[in-house]
Specification:
single chain; alpha/beta; 14 helices; 49% helix; 11% strand
């Protein structure tokens, strides 16, 4: 019998060239638009200039919010305060995960006269009512999948830092507009980090203890897209077919995590992100092989979750498409593939990225392994950090 489940997605508009439809979409909401972007790459591109020209020609007024890095509660609170007299009809975020998370949080806080910190998981004390200004997400990288999720990740780095979510079912974007052309100019480094974030989300959602047949169907197709497209995007960034594959994979990863949850890689990466200003995708990518290697070893040792080992074999089969090999062989082949990708994409170890061994205890205390096929204790988390401390 199929386990009961719910499922949520935004309205999805996907395809090359579909960014041209954005001004018409925005005009349906009204004449006051908040435009949330990254530091400058989109606004200086032909796509950004074309959008502004079209908004002006349609007499659509806009206010821009710039998000230079991973979004903090202070950025969201400041934007909401500055926009208090503007009365926006919609918020559109165009950029990487940082811009989209910030835009999502801004849209959710514009109708409340409070700090977003009060509503963050494990930080604040209040539950968000789910009210928001209509929100449209337009990704320019293929990574976070936040264009399809019900949460906005905000962080504050430092001694008492955190990386936590503003979460509510209604925070799901109203529209996700995905145009692979917008990702063409991503550097190899961003392509690698965001691509491995996407791959991590797909894998963790597929293996999650909360997965369901619908999420498995979508995440497995996303994983196949990563198989076919990620390394090619890294090596040949102007390959629009590969870029399209990764755009689909990122979207699938967002749908997967929104409906099945994530695992230990993100549990550790989020803890590190609360201490160090290191790109989230880089952390996920560099931890991916080590976390899955230890998960498989613990599953084999305990025999506690044979269904999860079957899924690991399925992951190996997705990459190698060989039904003649044993499940153990395919599982090991999948772990080897993760190690190969770490090298092929030139992902640095934790020490090289800037993590200090003295912070391991703090990282471990803030980490989690919920939804992972097998639970990690503190010693397991220490082993993963040590494996990647190079």
């Amino acid at each position: 019998m199929i386990t009961p489940f719910g499922f949520a997605t935004p309205k999805i508009i996907f395809g090359k060239g579909r960014i041209k439809e954005l001004p018409v979409i925005l005009s349906r909401y009204g004449r006051n638009i908040v435009l949330v972007t990254g530091k400058n790459s989109f606004m200086t591109s032909s796509y950004g200039k074309g959008l502004i020209e079209k908004l002006q020609s349609e007499n659509i007024s806009y206010r821009q919010v710039t998000v230079p890095g991973e979004p903090s509660p202070d950025i969201v609170d400041s934007a909401v305060f500055d926009l208090s007299g503007f009365k926006p009809d919609a918020v559109v975020a165009i950029g990487g995960g940082s811009a989209m998370d910030a835009g999502k949080a801004i849209s959710a806080m514009l109708l409340l006269n409070e700090s977003v910190v009060d509503y963050l998981e494990d930080v604040g004390t209040k539950e968000h009512p789910g009210t928001k200004v209509p929100f449209i997400a337009v990704p320019t990288t293929s990574g976070t999948g936040t264009e399809a999720t019900k949460n906005a990740v905000l962080s504050r780095t430092g001694k008492n830092g955190f990386k936590k979510s503003l979460r509510h079912e209604n925070i799901l974007p109203d529209i996700a507009l995905i145009d692979p052309e917008l990702t063409i100019n991503c550097s190899p480094a961003i392509t690698a980090a965001s691509g491995m974030d996407c791959f991590t989300q797909l894998t963790e959602s597929y293996l999650s203890t909360k997965s369901n047949p619908m999420s498995d169907a979508i995440t497995s197709e996303g994983i196949k897209a990563v198989r076919d497209s990620l390394v090619e995007c890294f090596r040949n960034g102007d390959n629009i077919e590969a870029r399209s594959g990764m755009s689909f994979a990122a979207l699938a990863s967002g749908i997967g995590l929104a409906n099945a949850g994530l695992g230990t890689v993100h549990g550790i990466a989020g803890a590190i992100g609360g201490i160090y200003e290191i790109p989230h995708g880089l952390l996920c990518g560099t931890l991916m092989a080590a976390c899955n290697d230890l998960t498989v070893r613990k599953l084999r040792k305990t025999g506690s979750n044979p269904a999860a080992l079957k899924k690991y074999a399925s992951l190996g089969r997705m990459f190698f498409e060989d039904n003649s090999k044993s499940d153990d062989y395919l599982t090991d082949a999948f772990i080897n593939k993760l190690n190969e990708l770490t090298l092929a994409l030139r992902l640095p170890g934790l020490k090289t990225a800037g993590v200090e061994e003295s912070s391991f205890s703090t990282i471990i205390a803030a980490s989690s392994s919920k939804n992972n096929p097998v639970k990690f204790d503190d010693q397991d988390l220490y082993e993963v950090l040590s494996m990647r401390f190079v």
